[in-house]
Amino acid sequence: MRAGDRPAVAIAGVGQAGPVAADSRSIPEMVLAAVEEALADAAIGFDGVEAVVTASVDLFDGLTASNVAITEVVGAVMRPETRIAGDGLCAAIHGACELRAGACETVLAVAHGKASMAPHWALTEWAMDPVFLQPLGIDFLVCAGLQACALAQGDGGATERWAELAARRAAAGDAAIAPPRSAAEILASPVLASPLRRGMAAPLGDGACAVVLRAAAGGPGEAPVRIAGAGWDLEPHSPGERDLARWHGLERACARAGLDRTDPGLELAEPSCLFAHEEELFRAAAGIGEEAPLSPGGGLFAGTAPHVAGLSRLIACARAIRDGAARRALAHGAWGPAGQAHAVAVLEAW
Amino acid sequence: MIVEGRVQIPFRYAAGAAASRFGAALRDERRILGARCTGCDRVLCPPGPFCGSCGGAAGAAVEVGPGATLLAWTELPDRGAFALVRLDGADGALAHRLVDVPEPRVGMRLRARFAPERGGDIRDIEGFGAEGIER
Ligand SMILES: [Zn+2]
C-alpha cells in the first residue's frame, strides 16, 4: 500500500489502557478506556466512527469469538466491524485499506490482550499444527528457543549481547510490569528456553490500544501524522520449513510498504520484539542500523500485551512525530511462532 | 472479582493422506516416510499435503532417516529438550524432541528412537538420540 491518488490516511487519535501486569478491569472495561481516550484525542464521539477493525485472538481470550465481548464498547453495533486474529497493527492497516478504498471516512482500530488470564506460553501450544507439532508439546516458547539457537550459531557472544540489550531496553521503559535488571542479573535469571533466559523476554501483561484513522487530504488543520506505507507478509508455519535465523517475512513486508532497505529517511523504529534476539532479526530484515533511534522508550520490554504490541508501536511512532522527535518512523507488529507473520507501517509528518 | 473457567475439549484431527501414510509406516514398520514435492522435487518430512516452499502437492513417498543431523536445539525447565533435525535424505527440517543427549552440539549426528508402543502418529518417534548409543 503506497501513497498515491487515493485518499491519504491520517492518524487522528490514539488511546491506550495499560499495559500492566494484571488489570482488575474486565476486557470490555479496558477496551472502553482506550477507545474513549482515542475518540477524545480525535475530538469525535462514537457517532463519528463509521467502521471498526478489531484485533484479538479467541485462544488467548478463552472465548470465541473474542470480538463479541467488545462489540458495544468499540461502537460496532449497527456498524461494519472486521475482526483480525493477528497483531493489532494489522487492524490499523486494514482500516487504512478501507479508507483508501473510499468505503468510509473514519475508522476505529482496536486491539486488546490480557495475558494475566491464563499461562500465555502454554496456550500457544494450541496455536500449533495439531498433527506434527502439538502432540510433541511444541509451543511458541520452544520455537523462540530454537530460533535463538539457530541465530547464535558460530556467535559466541550472542547471549551476553542479548542480556545487555534486554537490560538497556528494560531500563529505558517505565518498568510497568517488571523491574529493570542488569545484564549480569539477566544472564543469571532462570532458563526460559535455552539459550534464552527469563530476563531476555519482554514482560507480558494486560492492555488495550485504540487508534482513530481518518481519510484526509493533508494540509493546515489536518492531523499531523499520516500512514505513508504499510505491508504484511507470512512465513510457513512449521519451524522446520523456515530459515529461523532470518525474518524473511519482515523483509517482504517492508518491501510491500515501499521501504527501501537502506532508507535514509527513517528517524525512529519501533519494533515488536518479544525476545532480545528478535531485535537483531528485526534490524537485519528491515535494514535498520544504529543511525535511527530504536525503541527509545524500551519497546516491548517496558511491558506489553499479546497482539496489542504492534498497535502500541504505531501509537509510539505517532506520538514521537507529534512531539517533533521524528518526522518519519517505522512501526512493526509480529504474530505466530518465532515471528511467522509480520506487519509494518511507515508513519510520516504531513 | 475473578470468575474461574477451564477449557478441556477432546478433538479428533484428520491427519491427511501424506501424514496418514507417514503414521502407518512408523507404526507398522518403524520406517520414516517423507514425500517428494511435485513442484520443486524437495523431499518433505514431515509430509504435509503440500510443500511449504513452492506450494506444490506432496507426491511419492520417500524413505528418510532414521539418521539425522542436529540443526538447532533448546531445553526448557521441566519440559526436556526440543530439536530441529535434518533427516538423512530429506530437505527442510523436522521439529521433534531430543532424548538422552547430555551435551547437544549443532551438527552432531542423531538417530530416531522409535517408541515401543506405537499408535500411528509423530509420537511413534520418541525423539532423537545420539547416534551410536542404541537402547
Ligand atoms: Zn516444493
Features:
heterodimer, A: Peroxisomal Thiolase, Chain A, domain 1, 9-stranded mixed sheet, two-stranded antiparallel sheet, B: 135 residues, mainly beta, 5-stranded antiparallel sheet, 1 helix, globular, binds zinc ion
Structure description:
- The complex is a heterodimer of chains A (350) and B (135).
- By secondary structure, chain A is α/β, with parallel strands linked by helices.
- Chain A has a domain at 8-117 and 204-221: Peroxisomal Thiolase, Chain A, domain 1 (3-Layer(aba) Sandwich), CATH 3.40.47.10.
- Helix content of chain A is 30%, strand content 22%.
- In chain A, helix 3 packs across helix 10.
- Chain A starts with 7 loop residues before the first strand and ends with a strand.
- Chain B has one domain.
- Chain B is built from 1 helix and 8 strands.
- Chain B has a 5-stranded antiparallel β-sheet with strand order 6-5-4-7-8, with no helix packed on it. In chain B, strands 2-1-3 form a 3-stranded antiparallel β-sheet, covered by helices on one side.
- The longest helix of chain B has 13 residues, at 17-29.
- Chain B starts with 16 loop residues before the first helix and ends in a 5-residue tail after the last strand.
- Classes of the chains: A alpha/beta (350), B mainly beta (135).
- The A-B interface holds A 62, 130-133, 135-138, 141-142, 144-150, 153, 190-196, 236-242, 244 and B 5, 7, 11, 13, 15-16, 19, 46, 48, 52-53, 71-77, 79, 82-84, 92-97, 106, 121-123.
- Bound molecules: zinc ion.
- Zinc ion binds at residues 37, 39-40, 42, 51, 53-54, 56 of chain B.
- The site of zinc ion has 8 residues of chain B, from loops.
